[in-house]
Each structure stands twice: as C-alpha cells, then as structure tokens.
Design goal:
Elements (H helix, E strand, L loop, with lengths): L2 E4 L3 H14 L4 E5 L4 H13 L3 H6 L4 H16 L2 E5 L5 H15 L3 E5 L8 H22 L4 E5 L11 H6 L2 E4 L1
Parallel strand pairs: 1-5, 1-6, 2-3, 2-4, 4-5
Helix pairs in contact: 2-4, 5-6
Length: about 180
C-alpha cells in the first residue's frame, strides 16, 4: 500500500496524483505539513487550468482564464476531498484524522506530504519518523485498508534523510 516518493518535486507529484484520483472518482484525504489550504488551492487551480501560479496569485488573469479558474474551483468543491495542514503531524493525529475522513467522506486514498521532523536530537528525529512511517503503513493503510502515498526527503548522499526506518516500512519507494 504505502508508496514513498523521495527527493525533489514531491508536492507537485502528490498534487498531480491527488487530482488524478479525484478525476477517477476517488475520495481523497491530503494531509500536508508544508502548504496551507490557500497555497494548495492556488497550485491545484494552476494545475487544473494550466494557468501560471503567479498569475493566479496576483490576479493577473484574463476574463477567459477567470472563467476557467471559477469552473475548476467549482469542480474541486464538488469532489470528496479534504486538505488538512499541520506543520507538526503526530502518528496518533494522522491515524485519527484518516479514520474520521474515511467515515465522513468515504476516503479511499490518502496522501501524506511529507515525512519530516524538525525538533529533537538525531535519535528523537529517527524514532519519530520511524513511528510515523509505521503508523502510515500498519494503521492507516493496514487497518483502514486504503492506499497511502507519502513523501520524504533524500540527504546529500541520495539516502532517505533522518531515518532508515522510513525505508524499512514502505512497500514501494520512488526516487525522483
């Protein structure tokens, strides 16, 4: 179930997959540690309309582009989709949120963008990332029986950053 994407372009790949899953009729939960809903929405609209992000942010689009943005926003609002932002996701909150979304919107696909930990010593970071990976695989994907796409960073040596437990728990890793 869990697929982890490594290195650069993580959020762009996750957004593409999110929109693809929605277009296929799936119910998607997107748990984000990087982008708030406004930033995510601008990127999603840019993706759907093929209008540059800067034009949307600055309101410098044409009348026809505005129509396309409104249509895409209307489409997105009709989807079974929830984006939740928290810069400090914890395993318990990830599982609880996934369980609630599965109940409320019938979530059948989860995206977690991305596995990180900014506090504590190296061992604490290692343990926390391992616990989050284990939770995504065994609780969310396993107990809730839904596919999970999670993302993480590589270090300068091309290895998974901060915790080899991430590599231990994923089913498939894609390096970009």
């Amino acid at each position: 179930f869990p697929v982890t994407i490594l290195k650069s372009g993580k959020s762009a790949i996750a957004l593409n997959e999110c929109l693809y899953q929605l277009q296929k009729g799936h119910s998607v939960g997107y748990l984000d540690s990087e982008m708030n809903i406004k930033e995510f929405l601008v990127r999603a609209l840019a993706n759907l309309t093929q209008i540059d992000v800067r034009k949307i942010k600055q309101g410098l689009y044409t009348v026809s582009e505005e129509k396309s943005i409104r249509e895409s926003l209307s489409w997105l609002k009709k989807q079974k989709f929830v984006h939740k932002y928290d810069p400090d996701w914890q395993p318990e909150k990830i599982f609880t949120t996934a369980k609630v979304l599965q109940y409320k919107i019938g979530m059948d696909f989860l995206i977690f963008d991305y596995l990180k930990c900014n506090d504590g010593d190296a061992n604490a970071v290692y343990q926390k990332l391992g616990k989050m990976s284990d939770s995504l695989k065994n609780q969310v994907a396993g107990l809730l029986n839904i596919p999970v796409l999670s993302l993480t960073q590589l270090n300068r040596n091309g290895e998974i950053s901060d915790s080899d437990k991430i590599a231990r728990y994923v089913s498939t890793a894609i390096v970009t």
